[in-house]
Design a protein that fits this description.
The complex is a heterodimer of chains A (about 325) and B (about 475).
Chain A lengths: L4 H23 L6 H8 L2 H16 L7 H13 L1 H4 L1 H24 L4 H19 L9 H8 L7 H19 L1 H18 L4 H27 L10 H11 L11 H20 L4 H31 L1
Chain B lengths: L1 H5 L2 E12 L2 E12 L3 E5 L6 H8 L7 E6 L2 E2 L3 H6 L2 E4 L11 H8 L8 H16 L16 H13 L8 E5 L7 H16 L3 E5 L3 H7 L2 E6 L2 E7 L5 H8 L21 E3 L9 E3 L4 E5 L6 H12 L11 E4 L3 H4 L7 H6 L3 H4 E2 L2 E2 L1 H14 L16 H14 L4 E5 L7 H16 L3 E5 L3 H4 L4 E6 L2 E7 L5 H8 L7
Parallel strand pairs in B: 3-8, 3-9, 6-7, 7-8, 13-18, 13-19, 14-17, 17-18
Antiparallel strand pairs in B: 1-2, 1-4, 4-5, 9-10, 11-12, 15-16, 19-20
Classes of the chains: A mainly alpha (about 325), B alpha/beta (about 475).
Amino acid sequence: MKLSSGTIRLIIPAASLVLLLAAVFYMQPRAMSYTGLNLLFNLAVPIALATIAQMLIMSVNDLDLSMGTFVSFCACVSATFLQSSPALGILIFLGAIAAYALIGVVIYVRDLPSIVVTLGMSFVWGGLAVLILPSPGGTAPTWARWLMTAKPPLVPMAIVASILIAAVTHCIVMRSSFGVLMRGVGGNDRSVERAGWSVLGLRAATYALAGFFAVLAGIALVGLTTSADANIALRYTLLSIAGVILGGGQFVGGKVSPIGAVIGALTLTLAGSFLSFMRISPDWQIGAQGAILIVVLALRLALNRLEKREKSE
Amino acid sequence: MTKTLKREEVVAARGVRVTFGAVKALDGADLVIHAGECIGLVGHNGAGKSTIVNVINGGLTPHDGSLTYSGREFHGISAARANGVRCVFQELSLCPNLTVGENARIMHAELKGWAWRKRALALVESQLQDIFPGHSIDCDSTVDDLSIAERQMVEIAISFAGIDQRPKLVILDEPTSSLDAGLAAQLMAYIRKFVGEGGSVLLISHILGEILSTSDRIVVMKDGRVVADRMASEFSTRSLVEAMGNVVREQEFSRSATSRTGEPVLSMPPRRGHGLAFQAWRGEMIGLAGLGGHGQTEALLDLYLDRNSNWWPKRQHEIAFVAGDRSLNGTFPLWSILKNLSIASLGQLSTNRIVDRAREETLGASWKQRIEIRTPDMENRLLSLSGGNQQKVLFARALATTASTVLMDDPMRGVDIGTKQEVYEILRSEAANGRTFIWYSTEMDEIRLCDRVYVFRDGAIAAELVGDEITEKNVLAASFHEGDAA
């Protein structure tokens, strides 16, 4: 059977995750347990959700540089309003999602670079987060806490949640009509427009969906950490972009993979633990994490070239 | 009764005018398409073929004139689609990241609801089987993984397919450009069948054999107007080429008899393994002609990269390049006119790697005078200039370098005639000084200025014309394939 190029693109991220996991188990056999796995992957759940949100934006050829501050803002709202007066909290989240849709519209209508607009928005979200929670604190809603610390039989929650996220987003992005149109906008928006669809509407919906997943990331993060802080998720901007790319997505052309994105988020989380197990000093960890990224991406580039050469022959 | 039904108008564009700035793309063109006929549309570059196609499919709203679908006036892409107009564009317009079935979903909004994937696949597969029996396309693969010919086949099949209602008019813009003879023949046969069942087809092709054998009626366009509209049987290849050409007697240009001395400054083996080899001698002005998109730009890029590595550009440039798409790869919109001009010659303007302002200004002043850049101050922003003057700056940028060869990628697009004349003068005098110009142009007037012309067709050089052989008729004859398809 001939492998499709989408499957080939998934092989490298999956293989690198397995390799990294094997290395971790080799160095620390005790990690090979229910609790061990849960600890390893716990923090991957909010990152995976943020990566999915970033992937949606990237599927229409844009980039969201406000992802980190937006997730921080959502975490602050979850730890305060959502906990004390759930109705108001949900209202704020709906407003935030509408704001995302509006950003998508503005970027398309005014033909602005998404990087500039979202970079500007990142200060807005950051400022709002500080207004809501000037100093670290707040409490996680009990249901979010319960959800993130639940102990399903056999497989730890972190794994169940990751698989669930991958499955649901795969259905939305790869299987549904909306997903096809969304990726079509990324692939060739003129042809989508010529076929009589509203590119504006599609982009607004994509941004809104991304906002929705980012809100989930904020709630999940607070569920894990029990309290929030205005700067809690600043790393997520770059982590989410790295996760999408690591998982086989591309910056342009609507080539994205939700399963790959979740795998990419898991790999990034695991890379951190792996480096700790290697006893690499924290000073060097960020550099080493970068090195892992470069190796994986170089592998993918080599594979792409091979594929292209095969096709041209 | 049947007679009146047969003459039902599917689309009628009457007296359509479209202007882009100073350029009249359509100047009162009439095109009426009836049900059950195949119309061949031919014309040279800039004749207005693509523009009238865009008007019919709703992508462009005409500035003047009427456009009716089945007798009623509508505007917009959705209206055109609702009236059964489908279009296969020359540049492939599928989404490369989606599968064949998913592309069908985008083109056919009716494919909604449960299990649309299965229905989309069935639809495309049966349509492909209808048009290209015996094809071997896997409809589950992404378009990226298909060859160019297969992509074109898929796009054609998706456009001809209909779920609730079949398309009334299918516009095919160079549908056979990447199909081999066998597939092209299958397509032509299908077009006849489709037309026989009451559909209409508007066929644009550079292969005159296809046009003559497949169409019922042939419409010839020139300069935004329809210059001939007759039954196909009344045309021959010869008369078709003549109809596309200029009726007015061509004025004579005085060409300097070029003396070829020594080795050619540039040469290139035959492209794609067929056609003629390319050679250029010192002081020559060489034109690259042919229909747009037949490999001229690629040839220019290859010539450039041949002398100048993509990885590590040399310090001393032997070749300068004047880009055609000004805003895409020509100008620095935020810089001043002077900076835009001097960017290519900074090496010779600097001492110890520091740019010498005084020399830069002298250079700017001298070129401002030579090619008459209309600005009070060379420090003004580039965008303060008109398009034609911006283009002059780009010319000056290339000419100010020490490069002995200048490559030009259709640089006069959208430039007014006065500016053109001025630039032609400068080019002539520079060529007399020993510079070599290689000039891709889509305009016949410019091609006729050249000493020697290579006519491109299907990515290779199809003909070489020297001196007095460079006439519109000869260029047209070489750019259109006589081919006996179908």
